[in-house]
Amino acid sequence: MASQNQPRGAFIVLEGADRAGKSTQCQMLVEHLTAKGVAAELWRFPDRTTAVGKMINSYLTSQSEIDDAAVHLLFSANRWEKREELLRKLHAGTTLVVDRYAYSGVAFTAAKGLPGLDRAWCMAPDAGLPAPDAVFFLSLTVEAAEARGGYGEERYEKAEFQRKVLDQFAAMRSSSWRMIDASQPIDAMQRQLREQAAVVVARCQRGTEAVGKLWESGAVGGAPLTQLNQ
Ligand code: DGP
């Protein structure tokens, strides 16, 4: 286990509804950090390459039906199975830019509005997972997402459902999330992300921050917004 004073990589999560541009922004950010000499990797959840991830992929592409509670636990298991590697990378000094995390996990299942599967139930299986140092939320209305050429073919890519997902994200938003207006041009968004990611990376390189745990208070998304804005 690394001590609290060891320099480490930053754990940066990008969240948002579908079509907000997360994947493009994550990729650009990793390329930028790498060019600056910061060891950085792009990760994404769900990670469809693992055995669990393959089950999730089959569900998302409607090749299989899985009970809603059970598939929720699979998405969570997919994060848990990557936990050790994630911590190892951070402590070895690699910054991880992660396309979606447990926040999507909660928002997408809670948006189903099923009896018994409320937000508290949805949060429970992810409790204790490493907490990110920063959460950047790419904010885009459903109308703007549709104007971008509409949603794809996967299970959740329907306007009505995406509206419910956005409501869930809004309900769980913490003051430590950094909101990024995803209706801006790609380069403007990226500029904002780079500036703010640099602050988080520097903080973690200074070695003053231990990796937090979900959903401990003060750990969801890292430093308060005011600090990130300085
Ligand atoms: P992506 O590969 O980022 O396009 O994500 C695939 C879809 O799965 C997308 O509609 C968001 C949804 N999703 C991502 N993570 C979770 C999760 O943990 N639980 C649920 N139910 N859905 C998720």
UniProtKB/TrEMBL annotation:
GO terms for molecular function: ATP binding; dTMP kinase activity; nucleoside diphosphate kinase activity. GO terms for cellular component: cytosol; mitochondrion; nucleus. Keywords: ATP-binding, Kinase, Nucleotide biosynthesis, Nucleotide-binding, Transferase. Residues 14-192 form the Thymidylate kinase-like domain. One of its GO terms (biological process) is dTDP biosynthetic process. Pathway: Pyrimidine metabolism; dTTP biosynthesis. It holds the Pfam family Thymidylate_kin. Its EC number is 2.7.4.9. It comes from the Eukaryota. InterPro entries: P-loop_NTPase, Thymidylate_kin-like_dom, Thymidylate_kin_CS, Thymidylate_kinase. HAMAP family: Thymidylate_kinase (MF_00165). Belongs to the thymidylate kinase family. This is Thymidylate kinase.
